[in-house]
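Data availability (excerpt). The following record was deposited with the supplementary files.
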Amino acid sequence: MEWIILIAVVALGVPAAAWLAQDHLLFFPQPVASTTRLQASASPLEIAVPEGIRLRGWIVKGTAEPAPVVIYFGGNAEEVSWTLSDVRWPREWTIVGLNYRGYGASEGKPGQVALEADALSIYDAIARREDIDRRRIVVFGRSLGTAVAAHLAAERPKVAAAVLVSPYDSMTAIGKLHYPWLPVALLLRHRFDASLDAKRNRMPLLAIVGEADAIVPPARSRALYDAWAGPKSWQAIPGAGHNDLGNGPEFWEAVARFLAKH
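Predicted structure:
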């Protein structure tokens, strides 16, 4: 009888612990360590969303007037100034990045519903600016942020194009891959089902994947790519993993070529 009780405790306790801990497993808020690496053209940007929460990040002004814009959504352990400071962004483009709730200096707590709603608020605020070309707003997502970008594009079909780096079809599929012993489909609150949004998206897509990515394997990226309804191109970088995908010139050359078309 005692071993039956032990099995029952384990069978119920492990899923319960996963249910309670999933926010901490999925979101890893990072502080702003330093902004000295940001370019001189970067300015602080703050957007208040309908709940009164304030999102904070930066806008890096492009040289064009009015400038085409990239709205960037980062990974689950990323503070966006890391990526906005990269000098390999095309100089004529304005780059916008707001940290997710609880990340950097942004207020609030992250979650799927909040992040997706915030993305719409960010887009709407940027589209109202007079210094940007609202016909050329491109969404750019990395890892976790690919689902946020795909949802934004689906809800705002005037988005000109999308760049998705290490995209995935759903967080449920990723969870099953990494935690096969758990009933992920029953436990997961933040499902980020990007494939459903992809089926609504008719703007051009560039998907960039690392062939050695063990966190979001290319098969999961391909599932999202296949679901995308619009024109699309696939860029696989040999030997690249999840965290070093953007290190080499091949990555940035693909981004520059794609943005030049849109």
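Summary of structural features: Residues 1-14, 16-20 have pLDDT under 50 and may be disordered.
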